[in-house]
From TrEMBL:
Belongs to the TTC4 family. This is Tetratricopeptide repeat protein 4. GO terms for cellular component: cytosol; nucleus. Keywords: Repeat, TPR repeat.
């Protein structure tokens, strides 16, 4: 076999490469892909420039085509693009196309547009019917997009717009029911299903939705019933506690600086029985050493000694000043003075004397070594006098 011209067996081009191809061959792969992305046919991302900061003429020409034709033709074009996005579950893009389709329907008719040189002649009745059908389809499909995006209010409004155009649109009734259910608008959801089933009694999705609505209604009813029962019980317990305190002559007062006691509170052993035993959160104060102890539930039948026996000795009492026999207890009166609280006297009897008061749900008892008590009392009196 004869060798190709040239004698070395290598294949050589018979003609020079076109200038455009030669230019591309000199570019990097990244540059070629960037240039291709400006061509509508090859676009993977929207690039509205020509690479030099100018308008992408090819793209603008393609976009302009979307707005050529009658209102119905323009809207149908956008609707089809919306449907394609919806099939791919691209709900945001689909919604935007449906927005444009609806806007096209509501735009002035081409023949009413003074910018056009040649009027467009159409069958107005047929065109109006076509526009109505496209508008209905766009509203109900946009309702689906809003439903998937959890824009339930917008979904309901789109369904309402659909039903104004066609009161028998089953999809609109179904999607409206779903959106209402998501917002716990149970009555509205039931109405939508009932209207749909009145049109199509065998519609399986509507039947399933009806069952879900009924289940949700039962759940909400039970939750509401439980809430009312809890509120009624709490109100009854508050009234019972108030009566228990009043019947014992125990004074209480609340301030704006109430401490956070978490779950500690004045309680009855039986919350609905005013005669059952009361207990009080109690703060033991050691003013001579700026220390405190907290008793979560000090029963009205208990005395201070019973608690001091397990609290003493105190870890910070280096001089062994605090023992049950070597301390005295004091409580502030409602008038602002002090009374000595018997260590062996039941708390209920002390509080029920009518002299002390429980402030912000907390009983307060000051504990002092006997040797320091007189000096502390004098200091308290001086502070109050000043």
């Amino acid at each position: 076999m004869a060798s190709p011209p040239g004698g070395d067996g290598a294949h050589k081009p018979s003609a020079a490469m076109p200038p455009a191809m030669a230019e591309i061959k000199q570019q990097s792969v990244e540059k070629v892909l960037e240039e291709m992305n400006r061509m509508p046919l090859f676009m993977t991302t929207l690039d509205e420039t020509d690479g030099e900061g100018n308008e992408n003429v090819a793209l603008e020409a393609l976009k302009a085509l979307a707005y050529e034709g009658t209102r119905a033709e323009i809207a149908e074009n956008f609707r089809q693009q919306g449907n394609e996005c919806a099939r791919e579950k691209q709900w945001t893009d689909a919604k935007e196309f449906y927005d444009k389709a609806i806007a096209a329907i509501k735009a002035p008719r081409p023949e009413e547009n003074p910018e056009l040189d040649v009027p467009v002649i159409v069958d107005e009745e047929a065109e109006a019917q076509k526009e109505r059908e496209i508008e209905e389809a766009c509203y109900v499909n946009r309702a689906l997009c809003n439903l998937e995006k959890k824009n339930y209010g917008s979904c309901i409004r789109d369904c309402a717009s659909t039903l104004r155009l066609n009161p028998k649109n089953i999809k609109a009734l179904y999607r409206s029911g779903l959106a209402c259910l998501a917002l716990d608008k149970i009555a509205e959801a039931k109405d939508a299903c009932e209207m749909g089933l009145a049109l199509d009694a065998s519609n399986a999705p509507l039947k399933t939705l009806t069952t879900k609505i009924e289940a949700r209604q039962t759940y909400i009813t039970n939750v509401e019933k439980s809430r009312r029962e809890r509120e009624e019980k709490a109100a009854s317990e508050r009234a019972t506690l108030k009566f228990a305190l009043k019947s014992r002559g125990i004074l209480t007062r609340s301030t704006e600086q109430a401490p956070d006691l978490e779950d500690a509170a004045i309680k009855l052993a039986e919350s609905q029985d005013a005669s059952s035993v009361l207990s009080f959160p109690t703060l033991l104060l050691y003013p001579a050493h700026n220390q405190t102890d907290f008793i979560k539930a000090f029963s009205e039948t208990e005395n201070l000694t019973q608690h001091l026996e397990y609290i003493f000795p105190l870890p910070w009492d280096k001089d062994d000043e605090y023992s049950v026999d070597n301390v005295e207890a004091y409580m502030e009166t409602a008038a602002g003075g002090l009374i000595k609280a018997g260590k062996k006297m039941a708390l209920g009897k002390i509080l029920g004397s009518g002299k002390t008061e429980v402030v912000d749900g907390l009983a307060r008892i000051s504990i002092l070594p006997k040797a320091r008590a007189s000096q502390w009392i004098d200091e308290v009196k001086r502070r109050k006098a000043s």
